[in-house]
Amino acid sequence: MRKAYLKWFALLLPLMLFIAWSGQEAAAAGSGKIVLDNRELALPKGIVLENVNGSVMIPIRVVSENLGYEVLWEQKTRKVTIRQDFKAIALLVGSKQADADGVPFSLNAAPKQSGGTVLVPIRFVGEQFGLGVGWDNNDKIVYLSGNSSDPASVPSAPMPSVTPSPAPSSIPSGAPSPSATPAAVSSPTPTPAASQAAGIVTGTASSVPQASAGQAGTGTAAAVQVKGAAFSENQLIIAVTGSVTPNISALDPRRIVVELPGAVLAADFVGGGGASTGGQTSQGTLDVTGYPQIAGVSYTLSGSNSSTVRFEIQTTDVLPYRMNIDNSTGLITVDLNGGNAGGISGEGKPVVVLDAGHGGSQPGAISAAGRVEKDFNLAVILKAGALLQSDGRMTVIFTRSDDVTLGLQDRVKVAEEAGANVFVSLHANAMPTTASNWNKVNGSETYYTRSESLPFARIMHKHLVEGTGFKDNGVRAKSLHVTRETSMPAVLLEAGYLTNPAEEAALYTEELQNSLAREIAAGIIEYLGL
Fold it and tell me: What global pTM score does this model have?
């Protein structure tokens, strides 16, 4: 009997080992992947990518070390700090509160420790360090694009973003202002800009939307399907599958148009009023009963060489709008409830507020050659404003147009009273001489405070780097007064370092100032969808 048992065991052992080996292989295959700039990163043994409350958790050390970031771990407090140049973010294991350069953030999911590494929500890390982020839920693959300010470059829709907590004051020192008179600048011939992929668009545009090319033909299935639409609580809500960049504008002050290029109405499309179909066009209306300011909402699918789903909101009064794009849920919302959604001028144009940092008794940074930051700021802002004014499609307001002293709250007040759609503040940076390598630090960076400003910051940063030609230091979150206290999308641009001799010399040339002015104007035009 014993011999028979041993014989059967010998026969079964290879099979048992094969099953165990197969199970390990299956577990490894199901752990997920991280792809950085088309290169797969090796995951620590036993680590599985997790989706917690809609946030994909990844081992931060893997990504940060491959991007050259410094990672510090405090065992006693269970705190992980990630640094790059002068940016630092801090997270605590088990806590949904994080910190980025002094700005508190609330995370969708708390970091956790697993197998000797810390897993963190990749969206938070991506937003702080300017990474493009995408998630393939079917194959459990995280796609990362290093030093990318354009999330559209990543093959998949971005995941939900973190929400900043109410930020403490912590205001930087005053801002400079230039006394230079701008030289004539030719009309901008900016770098072609990618469409905004996600976030918030505010205001009322005055031009017909420029739809990007959609899927060829209507006979083949489009990548994006519109599953349903409804008008509720003074909001147009559109549900889509797939990633789409809506174009929004106003044909006139009482007709707001949203176009979804490359989209079709799903076979099971749900919309109030139903749809009628004929040939290549499907159309219908939504129920707007109980909303006296809304004359009607209609939708149309049209296509000859491409397909586009178009929604048109007709109002009985001029209403500001706010469009939110949430790729994580597939919902596009156009909110007509007013509030701080941005304004239009008396001419029905979007309002742009340009802020030249510092001024008057506040020189700002001073270079080794004795040049003052305020002069650079004003010279470029006046050039950019002149370009936007000559474009004619928006109203441009300067917080200052000469060398005067202006407080930080005064700059905010100008933007708020104007009902601005966007706010741009321009500065030049500097390092304290006590810092190591203080005269070698270089590059351009863009700052924002509130999460709704991030899409605008990404677009403006892309154009900032193109305009200066300097090193790309990324998009960064920081609690700055003018970006924190304003209610519209607001950014602060740091063009370069006056303490770096090469950048200081370049910043005061007509060539760079004209280039930067063109790109600032181009970034604003792109964001507003004009």
Answer: 0.47
